[in-house]
């Protein structure tokens, strides 16, 4: 079976939408639907519950989803090994969804302007702990992560980037005026969030605990695994989100969203460029790193003076 069918199921479950899955995979919704139908015919069970506004996996769908992720991880390792054997120039880059949405497009545009002959580029999105694991297993050449918890970074080179600011956002229609909002007002709203294991949710839970509160105080918590769906729900005035400012800057600039901070919250989290310690930094990779630094108005010489130093201690 071609792995693209399993990838389609994974995207459908993650996004809760066949149309969004199709968009992420660059195919038509009907093509995505046919792939899911093929899997259901192949396994003899319905894999998606289509009864609600958001697609959810059935019991059989959850089983296939879990096994599919493992199969695709094995496929990635296989492809990585074959690529290394071929010794062809390539870049495999992984980042968190927040960085991908806010910066990857501009980074790639600048890189391709001067490196158009490099046609082996791979991009992946994952949570910080899984990104670091992939780096240590040499699945990726470099990565950018935003993180707020203790990560084991002893076996990798780390280079600090400007912090990522996490803020509450709401649509003007909700009527929350103050930039420094009363937490009692915010918890009366529906909160749109990513899954329990994501860094932003962990960061929010930690902040709530630090001010003697609990995330369960929010009127309702809606979990989406796709940032686009979260942003759209907030734009539609359906609730609030605790989200990376870089992801929603354009909506704050045009007035579609309002920013809210909470007294006593730590709103900034670390953002770090990470490279495997044993990785050979060739010209293409150095150029790509330079484009990442350029996105934050930092210059490559600052990186070049640091690249040969021993790895710093783990970042908390």
UniProtKB/TrEMBL annotation:
Keywords in alphabetical order? DNA-binding, Transcription, Transcription regulation
Presence of the UniProt keyword Chloroplast in the record: no
GO MF annotations in UniProt = DNA-binding transcription factor activity; transcription cis-regulatory region binding
Official protein name in the record: Transcriptional regulator, LysR family
Q: What Pfam families is this protein classified in?
A: HTH_1 (PF00126), LysR_substrate (PF03466)
PANTHER family, per database record: HTH-TYPE TRANSCRIPTIONAL REGULATOR, LYSR FAMILY TRANSCRIPTIONAL REGULATOR
Q: Which family does it belong to?
A: Belongs to the LysR transcriptional regulatory family.
User: Endoplasmic reticulum as a keyword?
Assistant: no
Source superkingdom = Bacteria
- Could you tell me which InterPro entries the record lists for this protein? LysR_HTH_N, LysR_subst-bd, WH-like_DNA-bd_sf, WH_DNA-bd_sf
Ranges for domain HTH lysR-type? 1-58
| Species of the source | Geotalea uraniireducens (strain Rf4) (Geobacter uraniireducens)
């Amino acid at each position: 079976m071609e792995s693209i069918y399993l990838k389609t199921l994974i995207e459908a479950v993650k996004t809760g939408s066949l149309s969004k899955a199709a968009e992420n995979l660059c195919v038509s919704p009907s093509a995505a639907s046919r792939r899911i139908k093929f899997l259901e015919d192949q396994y003899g069970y319905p894999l998606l519950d289509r009864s609600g506004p958001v697609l959810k996996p059935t019991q059989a769908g959850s089983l296939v989803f879990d096994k599919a992720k493992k199969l695709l991880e094995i496929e990635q390792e296989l492809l990585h090994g074959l690529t290394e054997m071929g010794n062809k120039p390539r870049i495999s880059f992984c980042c968190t969804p927040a960085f991908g949405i806010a910066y990857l497009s501009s980074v790639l545009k600048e890189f391709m302007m001067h490196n158009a002959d490099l046609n082996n580029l791979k991009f992946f999105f994952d949570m910080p702990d899984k990104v670091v694991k992939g780096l240590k297993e040499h699945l990726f050449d470099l990565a950018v992560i935003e993180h707020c918890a203790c990560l084991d970074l002893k076996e990798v080179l780390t280079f600090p980037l400007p912090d990522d600011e996490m803020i509450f956002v709401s649509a003007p229609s909700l009527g929350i005026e103050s930039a420094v909002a009363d937490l009692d007002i915010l918890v009366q709203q529906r909160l749109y969030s990513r899954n329990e294991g994501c860094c932003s949710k962990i960061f929010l839970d930690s902040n709530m605990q630090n001010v003697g509160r609990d995330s369960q105080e929010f009127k309702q918590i809606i979990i989406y695994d796709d940032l686009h769906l979260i942003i759209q729900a907030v734009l539609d005035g359906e609730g609030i989100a605790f989200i990376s400012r870089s992801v929603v800057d354009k909506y704050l600039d045009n007035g579609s969203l309002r920013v809210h901070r909470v007294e006593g919250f730590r709103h900034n989290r670390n953002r770090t460029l990470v490279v495997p310690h044993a990785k050979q930094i060739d010209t293409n990779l150095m150029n790509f790193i330079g484009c990442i630094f350029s996105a934050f108005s930092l210059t490559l010489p600052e990186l070049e003076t640091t690249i040969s130093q021993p790895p710093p201690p783990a970042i908390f």
